[in-house]
Every structure is written in structure tokens, then in C-alpha cells.
Amino acid sequence: MASMTPELYEIIIKIVDERMKEIRATREEFDKLTTAVNKLAEAQTRTEQRLEQLAEAQTRTEQRL
């Protein structure tokens, strides 16, 4: 097996570093998306709860009329 030249080593290091930067950026984007989805799910839950409260209030109002 031939040994690696310093030039080849530097090229490989640069390629690996660039790929790691791309992976890190992709991971950060994924984390942001996950956070956004979680916030939307929480907002949806609150909306559903509020809608149920409004439906109950409407039922009570209709019963009084």
C-alpha cells in the first residue's frame, strides 16, 4: 500500500471539512423545522381547546334562548 502524500492528505481534509459543514447546516435546518412543527402542533391544540369552549358557550346561549 502506498503512503499518502501531504498534498493528497490536505485535499482529503478539505473535502471532508466541506462535507461536514454541509451536514451541520442540514442538521440545523432540520432542528429548526422540528421546532416549528412542534410550535404549530401546540398552537393547533390550543385552537382546538378554544373552539370546544366556544361551542360549549354557544350551546349554553342557545339553551337560554
Task: Give the H and E element order.
Answer: H
Uncertain stretches of 5 or more adjacent residues: none
The radius of gyration over CA amounts to: 28 Å
Q: Strand portion, in percent?
A: under 5%
**Distance linking N and C termini:** 92 Å
How much helicity do the residues have? over 70%
Provide the structure class: mainly alpha
Per DSSP E runs of 2 or more residues, the count of β-strands stands at: 0
What is the approximate shape?
A: rod-shaped
Largest sheet: number of strands, sense, barrel closure? none
Give me the number of helical elements. Answer: 1
Oligomeric state of the chains? single chain
Arithmetic mean pLDDT: 94
List the helices and strands and how they pair.
Blueprint: H1 6-64
Plain-language structure description:
This protein starts with 5 loop residues before the first helix and ends with a helix. It is 91% helix and 0% strand. The chain is an all-alpha fold.
